[in-house]
Design a protein that fits this description.
By secondary structure, the protein is α+β, with helices and mostly antiparallel strands. The protein contains 1 helix and 7 strands, in the order αβββββββ.
Length: about 140
């Protein structure tokens, strides 16, 4: 009976080793299938609404004054920085969220009106709304 139990334990050890190897192989990959090393920071979602293009960016710890948004022709550029300051009288025990400087550019498929771009920062999420230029908006044509 002990021989069978040892065989069973050996099989479990093999399965555990296989699981560990698969975990290490898949480490760093996102559910989207894109390796985390190829995804820029901040992470963004870009939506195309009927009359606007909306970009949502996760920017936890970034202050409004540390963000720079530029729209030129068919490109949106988002740049900024997050400081990693230690409160006075404290020393660092562990730091997992360090300082970061970033700059990402996004090609826009439609022309946007740079005068109508709005940005809002709430709960660490930056929402940029780029209203499409009049010539880029869909036009409804009535049949006469």
């Amino acid at each position: 009976m002990f021989a069978r139990w040892n065989d069973f334990e050996r099989e479990l050890a093999v399965m555990d080793e296989l699981r560990r190897r698969m975990d290490s192989l898949m480490r760093g990959y996102e559910p989207s299938g894109i390796p985390a090393s190829q995804v820029g920071w901040p992470r963004v979602n870009l939506y195309d609404a009927e009359s606007a293009v909306v970009l949502e960016a996760e920017v936890p710890g970034v202050a409004r004054e540390d963000l720079e948004i530029t729209v030129s022709q068919d490109t949106l550029t988002l740049a900024g920085k997050r400081a990693a300051e230690v409160p006075e009288g404290y020393s660092v025990h562990r730091r997992e969220r360090g300082a970061v400087e970033f700059s990402r550019s996004f090609a826009l498929r439609e022309k946007v009106d740079p005068e109508k771009v709005t940005a809002d920062l709430a709960d660490g999420v930056l929402t940029i709304t780029l209203h499409k230029a009049a010539e880029a908006q869909p036009r409804k044509i009535t049949v006469g």
